[in-house]
Design a protein that fits this description.
Number of helices: 9
CATH superfamily of the largest domain: DD-peptidase/beta-lactamase superfamily
Strand order of the largest sheet: 12-13-14-15-16-17-18-19
CATH architecture of the largest domain: 3-Layer(aba) Sandwich
Structural class: alpha+beta
CATH class of the largest domain: Alpha Beta
Number of strands: 19
CATH topology of the largest domain: Beta-lactamase
Largest sheet: 8 strands, antiparallel, barrel
Order of helices and strands: HEEEHHHHEEEHHEEEEEHHEEEEEEEE
Shape: globular
Distance between the termini: 59 Å
Strand content: 15-25%
Amino acid sequence: MAELLPETRRALLYRLATAQVQGRAPSIVAAVVRDGGSVWLDSRGSDTGRDVQYRIGSISKTFVTVLVLRLRDEGLISLDDPIGAHLPGDGDAKIRDLLAHTAGLASEPPGPWWERTDGTARTELLGTDVPSMRGLHHYSNPGFALLGALVAHLRGADWGTVLRREILEPLGLHRTTLLPTAPHALGWSVHPWADVLLPEPLTDTGPMGPAGQIWSTADDLARFAQFLLHGDDRVLGADSLAQMRTPYGAPEADGWNSSYGLGMQLLRRGDRLLSGHTGGMPGFAATVWTSPGDDVAAVLLTNTTAGVPVGGVAADLLTIVADREPRIPAPWTPLPDLDPALLDLAGPWYWGPAPYSLRPAAGGWLELASLSSTRRVRLRPAGDGEWIGTGDYFNGERLRLVRDDSGQVTHFDLGTFVFTRQPYAPASAIPGGVDPGGWR
């Protein structure tokens, strides 16, 4: 991988240094990932290093989501299943809604503040429902505690064991754990009006752990960010990761620059859409942001309860690299072993009078793009002359080829949208028919 330019490295260091000073953080460490690995890592303050553990808080939710989607991809669950279908007595909230925080659950569990109290004896995970928020985004930590319990129940092992076996070991995240292991940072709160510190408790949150228990390092999170950019078939494929980045539920009325997917926060920075997660626990704050279009990610870890806007700083680090050193695209190469039947589908198609282009892609995929708007969708092969959309308006919709008696493709149907080779022709394929007088 190419090294960053000296000017870029200095700009990154300057942003990191100012964040540490302005946020009065005892320590702060950051990394930038590009072209398949970490290209920059630096730190400020005391007791820092690439191998020092910090608590990463709600970034844990992204790890849990990967475990849940593995269950889905193996056919053990559907995201539309109610959680009670697998955990009897735990309600009718859909798994998809728990992942997207749209199930209408309370933000916090009942009882004392779970982040600062021992959770090993906690027996009740669900607080009062918020029915008015069902279907809308309402962040819920108990929802992810339930998802962790789902993983443990279906795998027959505690969720931490499943996490290690299915994500940490395959990706080489050997310094990512549920409980801190030396060397690790201590968690601090900084007095709001004086430069003095107060230690924060390092609690084991027990059943609430899937909402924010994990500890990790800058090196390990950089590897995890690389996985979030490209996927790894040993853990989760790129298609499922792309689904995690798809927005679900409406954002707040004043928050149109941010949204939430499945276990991933989404942030719009200019023309760039970032995906990842922020995390906070008493004494710690962290962020992982990725920009798949730039093949760049940034990681930030600090050991202060408040004061450092970790999401904004990490986004700044990513933007510095993406703007100063834009991604150089890979060389164009022809598709290997293109199916002649797919080549016959290539070219212009029309939805009514609106022109579209259809292009074959690697692996039997298709790419359908409007020539008069920004609408674009990639479709994965589903066999038997069918494809399934993976984004935009046609996400999850099925493309089906329609043939005449001779076997020639006359049109295709994509979620009831009929596409033909000529505008509104053949007339027999057009829902509602075509005026007999034709074009005039």
